[in-house]
Amino acid sequence: MKTNANIVRKLNDFDVVQRTKDSMFDATTLLKQWNKSSGMKKEIKHFFENKQTKEFIEVLLNEEKLNTRNSAYLKSRGKNGGTWMHPYLFIKFAMWLNPKFEYHVIKFVYDELIQHRKLSGDFYNKLCSLLGRFKETDFREVGKILNFVVFNEHARDRRNSATPEQQEDLQQLERDACRDIEKGYVRSWDEFKTMMRREWATRHNNVPSVLT
């Protein structure tokens, strides 16, 4: 559910808070819940003092091409203050809390990813079924087109290595395409490609051959 531009999910018995504006997670809220339930008094500063954490942050900055450390984590004050972390760093933080909690974090991420993959597959099948209305549809190109729009590249089984965020993006793209065909906004294979070309152009440069 959404509250004050935040999304609150359940992870085991804990609330996990994510901001919609930048996808960062609230580490402070999670830590307070953990300390209360476990009777411990862990502090976030101890996590950042850990050598593996420091090394991970450097890798995160480089691999994700983040411009500043504030893109990995930031600390704020005030009513909604606390420490907010990049999703990947937040996962590492949650797993640092406790081995049992680590299990639930892994399960949470795995279940979320599997669910996204399943939904993406369901919407892909529905999209192909709807595209079957058009005689000129080239089904060999459908997956390639979707991959280029979402990932800016195509590779066999590319969606299987997508992040949960990318899987969700792919779902939404497929869902929107299905809706537009059902409502009659898209009435041919060429119109479908035109729609995808327009969407691709808002995200990337140099339209790939499958969309020309």
TrEMBL record:
InterPro entries assigned to the protein according to its UniProt record, in alphabetical order: HTH_APSES_sf, KilA/APSES_HTH, KilA_N
Domain KilA-N residues, every copy: 5-112
Protein's name according to its UniProt entry: KilA-N domain-containing protein
Organism the protein comes from: Sphingobacterium griseoflavum
Lineage of source species: Bacteria, Pseudomonadati, Bacteroidota, Sphingobacteriia, Sphingobacteriales
